[in-house]
Amino acid sequence: MTAFGRSARLILIVGTSATLFGCGSTSRPNAGGQAPAVAAPVEVSIPVPAAAPPAHRVAPAQLTTAIDTLARTFDGKFGIAIRAVDEGWTIASPGARTRMPQQSVSKLWVAMTLMDLRDQGKARLDDPVLVRPEDLTLFHQPIAMLVKGAGYQTTVGELLTRALTHSDNTANDRLLTYVGGPMAVRAMIERKQLGDIRFGPGERLLQSKTAGLTWNQSLSAGNGFELARSRLSPEVRAAALDAYVNDPPDGAAPLAIADAIARLARGELFTETSTRILLDTMGASVTGRARLRAALPAGWKIAHKTGTGQDLGTRNAGFNDVGLLTAPDGRRYAIAVMIGDSRRPIRERQQLIQSVAAAVADYAGTSR
């Protein structure tokens, strides 16, 4: 038994929405009943043994062949990376070392920066935070229903939960401000030597530039952003999307992300408690039900973060799922599947991600 212990558990309070689409969580429903509902405490168990990384081993031929086949049959810019946390091997598709748009996968680095500050005694999850109307962003931000008048009083811990489990953009950008902004996140990535991972300017600036817009706060109200974007010419939008895909400011190599998640799982990045908090919060995510988690057999656990970019016609720039898969026997696999630019239908993109998880589960089931 290691210092962390394979049966270590953390009780994490997370809110779930009344519907899958209303991806918000809160411990303070508003009087009008508009806030997402509060669920009972959820107990998740993500193994976090503090073992040293295993010696390098040759990747299993069966799984390597399966991933190679998937890579040959999918049309688009993408990368697949798998690191066996306990067995010591790595599988990487040809695009695994290419920077792909992260989109909301980048929320993971904000959360890691928070855990790093917590370990330094510079942040607490129960620190109070005010979310004001001027903090609202765009796209998916269920916390906006609670931000009225002078704002919504919450905590750092609730922002973390909303950002990771429901991919709330406003919660994440407010948390980003709390930890010190993009420069603080970039400094953490460099200090922890996480590899080829960029961190962008935050949701508002990233998404507006990707669309071909200049951000102003009025775009955060209702569907203001979508309306302004719809008024742009197809040529402007295509040029902006091309610029984003060719050099994404939030770009990251899937292999670097898989390595970071493997190091997180081994307890190399943060203290025992911070590691548990982060993995258990990722384990409570309700996003991406048709991605990695959809292919996992009974008994498997997943702690993950999804990311989805903007569409332009049939084209999508950023369709991702990254995380830690844990087999029933405790073996763990860090996975990053990132589709950076593709015209394939959403169902085919989902199937690629599912197929990678299914291949890993099949390997684990036959190699006991």
Automatic annotation (TrEMBL):
Coiled-coil residue spans: none
Signal peptide annotation: none
EC assignment: 3.5.2.6
Pfam families documented for this protein: Beta-lactamase2 (PF13354)
Start and end residues of each Beta-lactamase class A catalytic domain: 79-338
Catalysed reactions, as listed in the record: a beta-lactam + H2O = a substituted beta-amino acid
Stored SUPFAM superfamilies: beta-lactamase/transpeptidase-like
Family annotation (InterPro entries): Beta-lactam/transpept-like (IPR012338), Beta-lactam_cat (IPR045155), Beta-lactam_class-A (IPR000871)
PANTHER family, per database record: BETA-LACTAMASE, BETA-LACTAMASE-TYPE TRANSPEPTIDASE FOLD CONTAINING PROTEIN
Family under the similarity heading: Belongs to the class-A beta-lactamase family.
UniProt-recorded name of the protein: beta-lactamase
